[in-house]
């Protein structure tokens, strides 16, 4: 593919200026593996980058997209060869290195993971960073002993990308899931993914008490701020909360009470720079533990040209589940 299409972001006074542009191989950045990209997706971080709501992009111009799936066309990396199907989540893609919103990419082979045989390329992007992050959260709960027999798990932002996949994964693994959402109309959707109980986001979004009545044994939180503080204050003795997002805010207006009086563990989840063995484990577990029928139910497919228009809808919480972008 000598020439190919890409979304290119240039710095503008009012935010990124985006245009669908034709590029050539010489325009790509340095890397030892070239990939023909077939699919990408739009995560909350992608939406922040596309709208300029938060200064995600660190180099201009930039091809956005923190996720990609495709086929290797050329490789100078010992782990990969032409024809291999690969996926990329995070690292510098879409931030300081051209990302997945282009039909071709050239990247560092250390960033790539071989596509699990259980999934199609489209399914890996239905999962994307959101589902990979959700699995990292589940692995953290398991490492700290938060198993199904300990009690229910709360998932905040449950109708979003990370939340939808977390609900589905936890339910498949036998957990009783309490899904928190600000979209009351999505209750049936969340129960269809396996949630046992659906609660209103407002129950958790107000300022928290140092300790509240114990309601769950563990949690997966995408919101931060007051929501995370409330989740912690309501976690049972010895429980674990995996924190992976900041949709409500970066602050944490909480006290030390849950940690020193109930022995609660707060596990921070970073998907961007997670080491490769952790990534491989997460994808192996996704291949084993994710219900593909539920994945299909929470996914919609759109052309890559729709990415920019979708971004403000993602930030406004108007997009249910996951979106696969076809290139």
In the CATH scheme, the class of the largest domain would be: Alpha Beta
Number of strands: 15
> Beta-strand percentage?
25-35%
CATH-defined architecture of the largest domain: Alpha-Beta Complex
CATH level-4 homologous superfamily of the largest domain: Medium-chain alcohol dehydrogenases, catalytic domain
Largest sheet: 7 strands, mixed
- Count the domains: 2
**What is the SS-derived class?**
alpha/beta
Give the ordered list of helices and strands. EEEHEEEEHEHEHEHEHEHEHHEHE
- The helix content is 25-40%
Structural Rg: 20 Å
Between the first and last Cα atoms, what is the distance in angstroms? 13 Å
* CATH fold field value of the largest domain: Quinone Oxidoreductase, Chain A, domain 1
Give the overall silhouette: globular
Averaging pLDDT over every residue, what do you get? 96
Total number of helices: 10
- Low-confidence region ranges: none
Brief summary:
With 327 residues, the protein is of the alpha/beta class.
């Amino acid at each position: 593919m000598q020439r190919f299409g890409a979304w290119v972001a240039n710095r503008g006074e009012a935010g990124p200026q985006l245009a669908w542009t034709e590029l050539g191989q010489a325009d790509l950045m340095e890397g030892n593996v070239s990939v023909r990209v077939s699919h990408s997706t739009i995560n909350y971080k992608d939406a922040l980058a596309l709208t300029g709501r938060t200064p995600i992009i660190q180099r201009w111009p930039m091809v956005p997209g923190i996720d990609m799936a495709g086929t290797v066309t050329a490789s100078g990396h010992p782990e990969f060869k032409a024809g291999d199907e690969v996926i990329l989540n995070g690292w510098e893609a879409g931030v300081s290195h051209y990302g997945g919103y282009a039909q071709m990419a050239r990247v560092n082979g250390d960033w790539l993971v071989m596509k699990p045989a259980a999934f199609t390329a489209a399914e890996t992007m239905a999962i994307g960073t959101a589902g990979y992050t959700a699995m990292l959260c589940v692995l953290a709960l398991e490492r700290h002993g938060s198993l199904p027999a300990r009690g229910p798990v709360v998932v905040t932002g449950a109708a979003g990308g990370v939340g939808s996949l977390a609900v589905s994964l936890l339910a498949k693994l036998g957990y009783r899931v309490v899904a928190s959402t600000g979209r009351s109309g999505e209750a049936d959707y969340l129960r269809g993914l396996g949630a046992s109980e659906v609660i209103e986001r407002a129950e958790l979004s107000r300022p928290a008490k140092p300790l509240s009545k114990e309601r769950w044994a563990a949690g997966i939180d995408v919101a931060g701020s007051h929501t995370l503080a409330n989740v912690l204050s309501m976690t049972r003795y010895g429980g674990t909360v995996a924190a992976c997002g900041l949709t409500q805010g970066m602050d944490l207006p909480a006290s030390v009470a849950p940690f020193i009086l109930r022995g609660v563990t707060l596990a921070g989840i970073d998907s961007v720079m997670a080491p490769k063995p952790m990534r491989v484990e997460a994808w192996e577990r996704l291949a084993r533990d994710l219900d593909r029928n539920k994945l299909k139910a929470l996914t919609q497919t759109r052309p890559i040209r729709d990415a920019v228009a979708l971004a403000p809808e993602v930030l406004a919480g108007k997009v249910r589940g996951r979106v696969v972008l076809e290139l």
